[in-house]
Prior knowledge:
Blueprint: E1 2-7, E2 12-15, H1 19-29, E3 34-37, E4 43-46, E5 51-57
Antiparallel strand pairs: 1-2, 1-5, 3-4
Amino acid sequence: MSTRIVFDNGLEVTVAQAESDVAQAVRRDHPSPVTLERSTGRPLHINWDHVTFMEETLVAPPSSG
Length: 65
């Protein structure tokens, strides 16, 4: 499973982690930016204050980026 995250500016990203793993990372790292993993294995730092929505999805994250 992957998780689609939507920011308040309309930007959407899909990360490799399941929604439950994302929620656990938020609880662990809050209030600091959350570090998640892109499909390429590179870290993605997310300021959770700007996230408006997230949902688990079957769509795989893009392989580049």
